[in-house]
Amino acid sequence: MTQAAIEIIDLSKTYKGGKRALDGVTLSVQRGSIFGLLGPNGAGKSTLINILAGLVNKTGGTARIWGFDIDEQLRNAKNSIGIVNQEIMFDPFFTPIETLDIQAGYYGVPKAERRSMELLRAVHLEDKARAYSRTLSGGMKRRLMVAKAMVHSPPILVLDEPTAGVDIELRQQLWSYVRSLNERGVTIVLTTHYLEEAEELCDRIAIINNGRLIADKPTRELVNMAQEKVVEVTVDRDLDADLPNHDHFEKIERSGPRSLTITYLKNRATAGEVLGLVQGQGFAIVDVSTHDPDLEDVFLSLTRAAA
Description:
Blueprint: E1 6-14, E2 20-29, E3 34-38, H1 45-53, E4 60-65, E5 68-69, H2 74-79, E6 81-84, H3 96-106, H4 116-122, H5 138-149, E7 156-160, H6 168-183, E8 187-191, H7 195-201, E9 204-209, E10 212-218, H8 219-223, E11 228-235, E12 249-256, E13 259-265, H9 271-280, E14 285-291, H10 295-306
Parallel strand pairs: 3-8, 3-9, 6-7, 7-8
Antiparallel strand pairs: 1-2, 1-4, 4-5, 9-10, 11-13, 11-14, 12-13
Helix pairs in contact: 3-5
């Protein structure tokens, strides 16, 4: 099947009072992928997700989930997606297994076909199945939210900041489960402020800022957009006030008595050329280390430029 898992065309949302949360966003999420949706706070990510969830009415544009238009085929669209919201939402007086059984009932899943204990086992909550949900830790509640979103076996799972407040071990468990779901064919849409997670997990990343789509590329291609690179150089003698300089250096700073931090643009010079320019000004190089740009560098560059 070549049809997109999620297809959004010219989507817009203006709230009462004139605040424009989404401004003509168009993007497509490929089936079977892990797709990152990034942006600063207030960029419009949660509004977009809440439109897909049926919690917010769009002002204009089109959105299709697994081929179903959210206006014309809302029930089928909702059955095709599971959403883990930022806010932890379930009745604290129900046990985890009751929470999942009730949620499955909302989706019309017959009792014989419910997978409540299987889902609790998958998110490492089997031993808490009959404890009151209010007694769970924050990380356990997050994992229960993921299980709750999967009760109707949707082909798409949306995770909105799923690891906020979760410790490293539980975060790794959650990502292990998400990867296993993706390997079984579930399409994952992820929003996160942990950009290293997005860079590691996502096949493709879109960035939204001020309600507009400012980037939508394969992850590696997006990271390669970063032009600034940094080289740390240790030289053979103490540095005086006159540091080596050249037009190819965007910035040069003394980071120690004999150490320099040089920032340069990779479309203007290579690391070898930078080192040659330092040597050409009378310095012998004792040690070198480099910093390659990452998703955070690209994210900051793009969002600042679009501000």
